[in-house]
Every structure is written in C-alpha cells, then in structure tokens.
Records
---
Amino acid sequence: MKKPITVSITGAAGQIGYSILPRIASGALFGPDQPVALRLIEIEAGMKPLEGVVMELQDAALPLLESIETTSDLNHGFAGANWALLIGSVPRKAGMERKDLLGINGKIFVGQGAAIAKNAAADIRVLVVGNPANTNCLIAMNNAPGVPADRWHAMTRLDEDRARSLIGQKAGHHARDVKKMTIWGNHSSTLYPDFEHATINGHEATETIQDRTWFETDFIQQVQQRGVAIIAARGLSSALSAANAAIETVRSICELTPADNWHSVGICSDGSYGVDLGLVSSFPTRSDTKELSIIEGLTTSPFAQAKIDLTIQELREEKAMVADLLRP
Ligand code: NAD
Ligand code: LMR
C-alpha cells in the first residue's frame, strides 16, 4: 500500500462535507490505489453531527480510508496536511450576494491560514470553497507566512461545469464535449464565462451555436445566477455539484491537463491579463502535474474585456473590504 495522503477538511459535518467525504475516501481525488487519512475540522456546534458522519464512514468500510481524526482545534486539524479543503463557513440565504458573507466568514480564514502555515506538510496545497471563495482564499494566503502563493486555490470549477453543461444542452451535445471553458474573475454574479474560446468537439462553440445574443445574455446570466436558482429551488445552496467541482478541481491541479482542454481555478494573479498582482482571480489553467500555469496569449474581445474589468473591479473592492484581515 502507498503512504496515505492526509486531507484536512473544514466544515466536514455540513452539506458539502456529507457529499464529498465518501467520494474522497473512495479514491475520487487521488485514484483507486491511494489511501487517504482524513482530518475533519468543525466548530464545537458541528462536533456532534460530525460524530454521526464518522460513524457512517466507518460503517461503509471503505478500503482506502486509512484513518479519521475529528477536531475543532485548527493546529491539530491541519497537522501534516498535504491537502486542505476549506469548506467550513456560512452559506448565503436567498436575497444575498456571496460577498455579503465577508463580514461573517472572512475572519475564519485568518486563523485557518495561520494554522496551515504552522502545521501542514511542506507540500501543502489548499482549495477554498467557502464563500466568497476568492477573497477568503486571499485572506488565508495572506495569513500563512512561508506557504508559497502558488499553493492557494479558490473554487470556480462549479461555474465552469455549469457553463459547459448549458452550452452542451444548447448545442445538443454532452457537456463532456465542451472544453476550454474559462471563468474569469470572481466566483460571484460578476463572473465572466468566456464563450469565445470554448470548444464543442474541437470546434469553436460560437461556430456550432450561431446565436451571439444567447451567449451575451441568457448564457452569461444563467451561469452567474445558477447558485441563486439552486437556493430558490432547494432552500439550500448547492452541495452535490459543489462537492463534485471540488473533486474535479483537485484532480485537474494534480493530473496532466490534456492538450485540447484547460480548467478554471482561482489563483494568485501574477499580473497576467492585466489582473492586479496578488488578487485571487479565476484564470484558464493547465497542469503538468507539478505546476499549474495560466494559459497565456488568449485574445480578449472588447465585449469580454469589459466583462473581465467588471469582475476584477469587484475583487479589488472585496480586497479593500477585508484590508484589516490581510497581514501587512
Ligand atoms: P453548511 O452550512 O451545510 O455547512 C457548513 C459547515 O461548516 C457547518 O457544519 C458548520 O458547522 C461548519 N463551519 C462553520 N464555521 C466553521 C469554522 N470556522 N471552522 C470549521 N467549520 C465551520 O454549508 P455548505 O452547504 O456545506 O457550504 C459551505 C460553504 O461553501 C458556504 O460558504 C457556501 O456558500 C460555499 N459554497 C461554495 C461554492 C463554490 O462554488 N465556491 C459552491 C457551493 C457552496
Ligand atoms: C454556488 O455557486 O452554488 C455556491 O457558491 C452557493 C451560492 O451561494 O450560490
């Protein structure tokens, strides 16, 4: 058996936690021959329900599940972590924007960033799912001295997958045929799903779907507002699809990206595409299994650039709102 990979997961007793844990413990992140050691982190109020989740994981007798630790102590929770999935935080309710959660959730990521820096393994990589994901990631990253900026990721994969699914439905194709779908900027209602570079079976999506009005209006709006639609229907925010997107994000960071595709993830900007250095923004990325790099050299039309400017401006505003949570 291989040495287990340690995965720390915050908010493990929540909705996303319930969807993601059995999948991680069944090999969905690192493959069918890679054991995992889970460190499940909850606040005190979540410890009792977490006990029940642990009982269920035990009852499933999963062959790859090496060990489970539960804790509300961050130092213990991130000890030796190779991956940290920062899910734990409050979800929004109907009528809220995700950034309305900054006041409640932002501060959670100060202590978590510091505890990761102090306790995690040298190869730690982090995915922030809790909303608003980009700016929470910015906060954690800025409070984790010594952990390189390229280890931090914020989840925009759910938006990418939503966009691929919508384009597939419109074109009469499966979502798997839709590739190179970039989400630019923030995981928020300003995100820009870049249909101009997307492909369907290797052809430009805009060639197959000759309906520019649909792309510019209904398509963008549906991707931007899908989270709201799910809250309206379920009375709860997305969980099954969010858990799936978190798994796919980690896989696309760890696995070689095929030449005909790329994936969207929020990462610390190196200034590419004019995005302010240090903002956590979603970009098109490709992995060589060791490093994740931004796809360079894409041309952005005036329409796309105006949308990208808007979402980057929102990230700047969110950064200003949490200035007191960022280390000098
Ligand atoms: P949930 O309320 O079902 O679960 C959240 C869990 O986090 C709870 O068990 C709670 O006790 C725990 N928690 C709260 N504060 C914590 C802390 N400081 N440390 C550890 N645990 C803590 O919520 P959910 O549906 O699982 O969603 C979790 C977060 O993910 C929300 O912020 C939601 O908006 C976000 N989300 C993001 C995306 C995305 O695409 N980025 C998608 C879906 C949901
Ligand atoms: C989503 O996109 O479904 C999540 O970010 C939850 C939300 O608040 O919309």
---
Amino acid sequence: MNNKAPRLLVVDDEDDVCEFVSFVARNIGYEVTSISDSQEFIEQYSHDLNIIIIDLTMPGMDGVELIRYLASVDSKAEIVLMSGFDLSVLYSARGLADSRGLTVKGVLEKPISIDSLERILDRRSKPRVPSSETKKISGPITADELRQAINNKELVNYYQPKIDIPSHFLTSVEALVRWQHPDKGLIMPDDFIALAEEAGLIKDLTSLVLDNALADCGGWKSKGIVIQVAVNISIKTLTDLNFPDQLQKKLIEHKLDPSQLIIEITESAFSDDISHVLDILTRIRMKGIHLSIDDFGTGYSSIQMLHRGPFDELKIDRSFVQHIQTDPNAHVIVETSIDFSKKMNIKSVAEGVETQEIWNSVEKLGCDVAQGYFISPAITAVEIPLWLVAWKQKQLLHCCA
Ligand code: C2E
Ligand code: CA
Ligand code: CA
C-alpha cells in the first residue's frame, strides 16, 4: 500500500489565499506547495502532483493559459479553479479545462469558505471511466486493422443499465461497443468510431453491434429478464432507406418485440437531406421501435431535432448532469430539458448520474430514467443478470433500512 501523502499545489498571487488553502489542505493530510507566480509554476510543475488549485486571474500567465499549459503536458492532476469573478467565468473556464481533457475536481468562488474547500478536497476522486474498463491504446489504429476486427468479430458490446427512477426497476441497457484487441487490450469507442465513419466501415460496425445486442437481449429474455436494449447510431450513417426494414427483419430473427429496441441517435445535426433522414426515422418509429435523441443540449440543432424528428426519448447529455449540483447553468439546462420532455410527452433520461446526490437532484426534477456510474458502468452481457440480482438486493436493503 502507498502511504505517501497526496501532493497539492496552490497557485495564486495573493499570499493570504495561498496560506489559507495550505492550512486547510495540510489539516486534511495533503503535502502542500504554494506558488504565487506563473513562471515559477512551470518550473515547479511535476507529474506526481495530485491536485492543482489555480486562481484564474494572475499577473504574467492567467488561469486559462495555465490550463492550456497543463493540457499540453498531458497533466493527470485534478484541477480546482478559483476566481473572484462572477460564476459564469468560473464555469466557462471549467468547460474549457474539461474540453482540453483535464480532470476538473471543482470550482471555488472567492472569498473561499473553509466548508467549500474541505468539501472539494475531501471528495474522493472518480476516474472518468472505471479502471476495470480502461486500457491505454498504444500506437495509432489503421482502417485495415479495424476492418479485420469487424470481420473477426473482435468488437464486443458492453451494456450499461438504465433505471426507471420512480420504481428503481431496470428498464433497458445501452450497448456500448468496445474493441477487444488481442495485443492492445480493450479499446474504447471514442478511439475508433470516427475512423469507422471516415473509412466507410460504420455500416458493418453498426450491423455487428445490432446483431450482438439483439442476441444478448434474447439471451436475457430466456433467463426471464425482459428489458429493452439501446443501440447508438450516428445520424450521418442513416442513408439507407431500407434500414427500418433491416431492423424489423433482425428483430423477427431474434424473436424480439420491436418495442424492445431503442435506437439512440448520436449526431446533433440533421444532414443536408432532412427529408431522407425523416423518412428513415419515421419508418423506424412506425415499426414500433423506440427512438432517442442522444447528448441532448450539446448540438445547435437539438431543438430542431426534437421538433422535426419522431423521438420518444430524450437523453440529457452527461456534461450537464454531472455538474447539476455545482453549476447553476447546468442545473437550468437539465431542468429545462426535463420540462421539454414532459410537455412533449416523451421520456427523459439523465446520463452521467455519478453519485447519490445527482440521482436525488434529477429525481426531484421529475426525470424518468437514470444512467451512470452511480448505478453501474458498462459491463459484459453475462454480468447483467448477476448485476441485476445485486441491484435488487441493494434496493431491498435500502427500503428496509
Ligand atoms: P454515449 O452514447 O453518450 O455513451 C455514454 C458514454 O458515457 C459511454 O462512454 C459511457 O461509458 C459513459 N458514461 C456512462 N456513465 C457515465 C458516468 O456516470 N460518468 C461519465 N463520466 N461517463 C459515463 P463510451 O462507452 O466510451 O462511449 C463513448 C461514445 O461512443 C458513446 O457516447 C457513443 O456516442 C459512442 N458509441 C459507443 N458505442 C457505439 C456504437 O455502437 N455505435 C456508434 N455509432 N457509436 C457508439
Ligand atoms: Ca448513447
Ligand atoms: Ca450521450
């Protein structure tokens, strides 16, 4: 076991802030260094830092430039941003750090209270993806390798449970594809979906994911677990007018009811040929298959999609849900999305439910379904029945406690 104290660096040109943060952090058990100058920061920066607390406004290099620097050295430290500006500046800096691949532990509004600082520093860090799932890839992936992987069926589906909030019942699972590479380990979809689209392989990939999802759904059904399965499809790839018929054929082959399949549309904008896409989407729904708008709120056309498309589920993007408690703007977006879905009589799903507190918040707003690490990460098909037993036991214990 590693007994070394976690290392924290505080960067602020105000000495009294550095002293205050150092005092609180040392009491919690951190080994603290503080610096007041951005040049010194670059000299002192080391990869073994666990947390870096950065003031956004500093002479020399400001917080935004430090964020850029940390991203350029691929820093793995957790970042805490602080500022005396109004909150929207803090949140947009956090969004920037997020988008540059940094892990933001929290934001602090100046003047800082002991309470808010302790809350952030006490919070145990959560990896973006559970460690059992992640493997770093080494070297770039080529289109040929991916084509072979699809042919050799090296692509496997993992499934993440979606839970009905009022009843706590498992309603469906989302199929999330992974590449079980013989040498490179488990490769995540963000590392090969774009390549599949560019290389013209996405159709074959989708077909494999669908076949596996329907086969697994049939397998669970034979064990008495009747749930829906959701499959991700990028709107860009919705070009084939026969796609709804192909879906129907696959459902019949697997002896599944169309209502057991959910198609999650992952692209935020309609393609140029709206009528073509609407033709396909409408026929999917007419066959009794469910349609979900994924990542709602992230694309400029989300509302247009909702208006024009025949959707019956709206998935609120995890970038809003994750920050619902600390970011008032994110809260408004989640609340408004849930209101939208209610008024349009469609189901709302919050993805990125990472904690009990986030669950409580979306429950209070009247959200229908929750998905996220608080419930379960994506797991293999065989693990689903085992997970379900454990989940039911947990609910029983909870209601009897
Ligand atoms: P998505 O559809 O938004 O899927 C949800 C992603 O969020 C998954 O990442 C999931 O593991 C992650 N996630 C789930 N709960 C939490 C949480 O509580 N906190 C956080 N931070 N993350 C959470 P994953 O599996 O890496 O998938 C990434 C994206 O790849 C998916 O985003 C989807 O757009 C795409 N994708 C996955 N499978 C397929 C597929 O078969 N076809 C296509 N076209 N795209 C796919
Ligand atoms: Ca999805
Ligand atoms: Ca999503």
---
Amino acid sequence: MQHDKVLILDFGSQYTQLIGRRVRELNIYSEIHPFNKIPSNINEFKAVILSGSPYSVRGEEALHPDLSLIRGQKPLLAVCYGAQYLAHFSGGEVAPSNTREYGRANLAYIKGDEIFFSKIEEGTQVWMSHSDTIKHLPDKAVLMASTNDVKNAAYRIDGESTYAIQFHPEVYHTKDGKQLLENFLVKIAGLNQDWTPQSFVEETVEALQLKLGKDKVVLGLSGGVDSTVAAVLLNKAIGKNLYCIFVNNGLLRKNEFENVLNQYEGMGLNVKGVDATNRFLEALKGIMDPEEKRKAIGNAFIEVFDDEAHKIEDVDWLAQGTIYPDVIESVSATGGPSATIKSHHNVGGLPDVMKLNIVEPLKALFKDEVRRVGATLGIDPELLGRHPFPGPGLGIRILGDITAEKVRILQEVDAIFINGLKHWGLYDKVWQAGAMLLPVESVGVMGDERTYEKCVALRAVESTDGMTADWVNLPYEFLQRTSNDIINKVKGVNRVVYDISSKPPATIEWE
Ligand code: XMP
C-alpha cells in the first residue's frame, strides 16, 4: 500500500479505536497495535500516537514499553496516559492528582504552539479523563497549555516533533480534537490525506485480482452490511467466480429471505438462495438453553453451507466479511496487560472441513468505513443503513424452545414494529430494534372472552458498537399505536411491553 500510515500504540483505553477512526476520517490510514508489540516494520509508519489507558504509570502492572525507537525518531503525539508515560519515560514525574480531572475543561495557552494549535482558539473545550497528573515535565519540555485544574495539560519536547496532551482529542466533547489531530498529522508530520473509500475500492479490487486470479471463491451472504459489501467488492474483482450462498435458516425477519435474495440478484451477484428452514427447525426441536440453541443453529449452518459449497467444483477460497474491530489485538482492561485477540460471534464458525484459504477484503476497515465503501460501490443506502441483526436471528429472540408457530408470531410482531419505526421516521435514530417472544402467557379480555395468550417485549437501543447501549425514548404515541396494531393483528398475542433496561447490566438480546 502506498498510503502514509499512522501507528497507534494501544495502552488499553476504551477510546483507542476512536483515535483510529478519527485519523481515518482525515483520510489517513491508521493501524492499532498493542503497546508491547511495536511492529517490526515501524519504519513504514510516518507518525505515532500513544493512546490513553485505564492503568497508572505508577502501578505495579504499569505498561512501560521502550520508546527509544520512537521518541525523537518520528513525529509522536502522546495522549492522556501516553502523555504521562512519555513524561515518566523521559525523566519527568507523574503523581496522583488531588483535584477532579474528569469531564469538560478549557485550555489556556501558556506558549501555544502556532502549528500544533493552528485554527484552535484559546479557551477551547477539551475532555479530561484521568486520575494521575504530570507533576514535573521532563528535560527540554516546553509547557504549551493548562486548564484550571491541570497545569501540564499540553507540552512538547524542544527540538523534536514530540507532542503530548493530557486531554482526549478523539472524543466528541473535545471540540477541536479533529483539527488538532489534523494539525499534528498533516502540518507537523506531513502525512498525505489520500486514504479514501474510492482509493480503497480501486486498490482492493486490484489486489484481489492479483491474489485470486481465476480461482473460485465461495461466500456466505447474511443480508447484513459486511457480507454484502465484501460480496460486491469481490464481484467487482472476479465477477462470476464469486459464488455467494444465502441460507434461509427460517429465523430471518418476515419476507427477508425473498426480498434480500431479489436485491442481491438485482445487484448482479452470482447468488444461490437455499431455503433450509425445516433443517434448522428440526435441529432446534425441544432445545431450551440459549447457548445450545446458538450451537445448533451454528452447526446446521455449517452443514448446509458445506453441502452447498461442495456443489461448486474446484473452489479454492472462502471469503468472509471480517472487519477491523474483529481482528485488532486488544490490550485487556482487566486481569493485567495480557494481549488477547477478540473473537467475533461469527468468525471462525465456517466449515473447516473444506480447508479453504480465507480471503477477508474488509479486514482493514471500521464499520463506518464499510458503509462508506458500500456507498462508493453504489449499494442501496437502505441496505447499508440496516440495523444489525444477530446470526442466530429470531432464534435468540424466542425465549425457550422454538417452533414454526412461534417464529410466525414473532415475525409478524417484528414486522409491525420495524415497519412502524420506518413509517414514523424513527428507524435511523435507533441503532438496533427488535421484538422478543416471552415464555409466559397472561390473562386478557377480548370482547367478552377471557384470553390466555403470549406476551412480547419490544426493544430499541442506541449504541455505537453494541458493547454498551441505552434504551431509546420512543414517543408514547408510537408505542401506543404499535401495541394496538400488534394485539389487534397478531393472533396469539394479548400483551406488549417495552424494555427500558440499559446495557450494562442488561444485554441487548434477551438470550
Ligand atoms: P448482546 O445481547 O450481547 O448483543 O448485548 C450485542 C450485539 O451482538 C448481537 N448478538 C449476536 N450476534 N450472534 C451474532 O451474530 C450471536 O449469537 C449474537 N448474540 C448477540 C446483538 O444482536 C447485538 O447487536
């Protein structure tokens, strides 16, 4: 790749990925690596950013990498813990802070650096989140800015392109954070801003053609954004040698299989729809435990997919829609600085019996970049804006055992809810929404009759990545209409409740 690259060394902050995304928003390519694994190709990176951390520089498990290959060797921006560690590493002193250093603060310039703070006015709002403070700056440090509570809020090292800030430029509440990152990366480090969705598409298509030649590739489509964008990219690169398989596990949303299959065909994809509803329902019969259900669904998927893939002669590659957050090696925030690889729900579940080579065209992209690339490829915005939907589908939204009748009921309820959200212009304001079929029956009256029927729970959450989430304050009038519609139209349901739990402690799904 010919693009300039930024190395982000991760010390375990919850915001590290956000730094990566902000840099990418400037059309500059960034990679995140654990603090203790400075990549051997460090020379290929034109600048380095040190992230924040939940750890203390003074702690027993302190994260103390050797920065001598970096400091003074290439442009360096140290953020929060990074700024403290840079001070500590360079002979300064870090101590516990005795004032509150969380939340909003305003920068006062001491010797505001003209380039570093270019286009940023004194007094700008920044976001602090730390409990240690830099008591003494290291040798050759020049104090650039302070806040009311934090004396050493920004400093640089004289004679080097080394900068350190105690606040977080990557979070939304630091008003000029993106400008500051741009000042550092473009004006100081001299990086080119040429990493764009368009350039990604062109280079990836070329690289895929080179890698795959005339080989055949099989890919499982799910109806979701990632697998769709991966398919369209591969289709652009190798055309009909991409064989897509779209499996109906019987646990999709109402009419989803037919609609999405049509859409895929309309996009010119070489796709085969396989309706395996009965096979999945059979495999799920009588299973109550959520993890057992997930396993049964996963295994049935592998069998069906494997059967279908075997029907394609001489297939060499398996394509997956893996994205960057699935492969970033993360520094664990609990249990010490051990490095673990995050495993994604769906990664690794595909047929190893086939022993195929794996191709993952999206593995350098964050989710928002996948959408931008999808838009560049001309994929329908409605498809790109779809809520996430779990692999096991309605199977983990029907609490307890699964039957065809329960799936039918939940599909009807879900369709009324989701179509209602769209109709009321609420769909795009919600990160994910769906309905749960509860394993209780409750008493109701319909006409003069007492009924004893099912209860459904509606769930709508806002979130950025599904790791934390809050319930959405949907208008009462919308909830009222939706509840009426569901009870009047869906036979077998006489009660609707709305889930007002946040994650944590509740999860988004009920199973
Ligand atoms: P939870 O329920 O853990 O969900 O708060 C977080 C996000 O993950 C999705 N999810 C799954 N996705 N297979 C998937 O592909 C699963 O088994 C699974 N379980 C939860 C969930 O829909 C939400 O977006």
---
Amino acid sequence: MTDLVERFVKNHKLENREEYRELLKHLEDPEAAEYVRVRAVKLRERHYGRAVYVRGLIEFTNYCRNGCYYCGINRENQRAVRYRLTPEEILECCRQGWELGFRTFVLQGGEDAWFTDERLAEVVSSVKRAYPNCAVTLSVGERSYESYEKLKKAGADRYLLRHETASEAHYACLHPSEMSLAARKQCLRSLKSLSYQTGAGFMVGSPGQTYDTLAQDLMFLKELQPEMAGIGPFIPHQDTRFADQRAGSAELTLRLLSVVRILLPAVLLPATTALGTLAADGREQGLAAGANVVMPNLSPRNRRKHYALYDNKLSEGEEAAERLSALAKRVKALGYYLDMGRGDAAEI
Ligand code: 5AD
C-alpha cells in the first residue's frame, strides 16, 4: 500500500489539505479502496462489535425558511406539499416506535417558525416524560445558542446538523447569500459546548464539490470531533435548480464512509437513506464500508412521500419502521445484528 494510505490508517489523520486530496486520489485504485474498507470495518468492530444501531426518524415538518439549492423542501419550491405534524401526532409516532422497540427518536424537520422554542421544548419534554429511557435527537437546523440551550434543558440528547461543505466558496454554490458557513460552524460549536452529542456531515457529489472541498470536509470533521457523521450521496430533486445535475456516486460515498470511520474511529455513522436510494444494496454496502447506524422512517405513512429532499427518496421496504424484521434479516445476513438500545457514542 502507498505510504500515504498506510500513514492515514495508522495515525487516523494526515498533515494537511494536500495530503487529504492525495488520499482521495489514491483511493481511486480499487486495491487501495479495499484496503481502507477492511481497516474501517475492523475499527468499527473494535469500538462497536457487530451491533448496528437503530434510530427512528420522525420527519415532523417540511416547512422551511431556507432556500438551500439542493433541497426539495426549500422555501422556493411551490410544488412541495407542505405538512406539519401536531405535537400529539409526533408523540403518536414515538408511541408506535416504542411499540416496535425503538429507543431513539430523531425529530427532523425544516426550519419551521411554527416550532418556536417553547413549542419544540414542550414536544421534547413530553417525549422524554413518556419515554424517559429513550434518547431524543433533534435535527431542525440553525437556531440561537439560547434556543439550543432551552431544548437541551427540555431533555434533547443529540443534535444533527450537517455542515454540508467546509469550503466557503462551495458553501456559496449550494446556498443563498444569507446563509453562511460561519453561521453553520457557530451552531455546531454551540451544540458541542452545550454537551449535545453532535452530528455534522456532508453530501457526496453535490454540484461544485471537488477532492479539494472534500479534503476540507475531512479536516473540519477531524477538528470538530463530532459524535455522529451523516454522509450520503447528493441526489437531484426535479423541482430545484439542481434538477439536471448528476447524482453523487455510490462508490465515492462508500470510500468516504470508510475514510471517516478511520478518521474518527468511534463515530456513529449511518448508512443513509440517500445511499439506499441510489443503489439497491446501498445500505448493506454502507455497513460493509464502516457505517454502524440505520434510521428507519417512523413518520406517518401518508406524509412520507412529502418529505422529499430528493427524487425517489426511499421510505418503504426496509426504510420503513414497520418492516424492522425484514431489515433485521438483511443485517443478520451480513453478520451483524440490530441493537435497539440508545447506542451512545463509544468512548475512545
Ligand atoms: N440529495 C441528498 N441529500 C440531500 N439533503 C438535502 N437535499 C438533498 C439532496 N438533494 C440532505 C442535506 C441535509 C439532510 C437533511 O439531507 O445534507 O442536511
């Protein structure tokens, strides 16, 4: 194996951006990619054994004040059918999830002003009251420090907020001018300082992405040390300005999952829905590349199709929480098992 790849595997980091760029270039060689994949799987097993953690995803609102160019529920999309679950409906999703064995609920939504701090905090605390041993993860975008603090006090344990890209220039290709990478990073630092288990991450193959911007993503993750990392392919949505752009590649996504596993050995790393959407066995391949989390969909069935971040987004089959046993079977066939516990990040 090349010295650079060996050194990365041994040290879990490289010295600078050029080296990360080189690493990605080296991984175009299938032999190098396979080497890194095997090492990533070993690390995952060292920290988490053969467990695959399960999170129940509740997509509770697709109203959004942001205009992210890639996203199907961005505010400009007049064709999106908007919905918002009531607090009672959110609790009912949790109840169904609890019955199915879920012990972690991820409440995800667009940046919807209806969910003020007070309303959202009330949702979080009522979920925690009803299911005290469950972990609640929020994924509702950028908010103030005070807001994150209130939600933490209400009982939220974790927060997912992808940074999307760590390159200023690339960030500006993907977002309208009122959004900034600096603001996004500030939110992530606030979340960390409030002791949320924090998730960052990025899409693979988003328009304008290069090995150089990916190198910056890897360096940013290494510096932030998030407990979770969400990495999935970009997939175009027909009603966005990126409708005619190419989707990211499953292969590069898989390589990056392995790289991120080596970079942050104890990170919680989902095999994303987007990867499952792009390739029939995408989720399995993700697990075989070093991922260790799956997030079946617990949203009300009649709403799922409306949470369309990209075209053809999976929400049926094994993506659906009701089909947990089918998912368990596929995971078992890989030599892993579904762990329905809280699945906190491992200590290293
Ligand atoms: N393709 C893939 N992922 C997308 N996301 C948003 N739009 C798309 C798309 N078109 C991802 C973003 C966001 C997460 C909730 O979904 O990275 O952070």
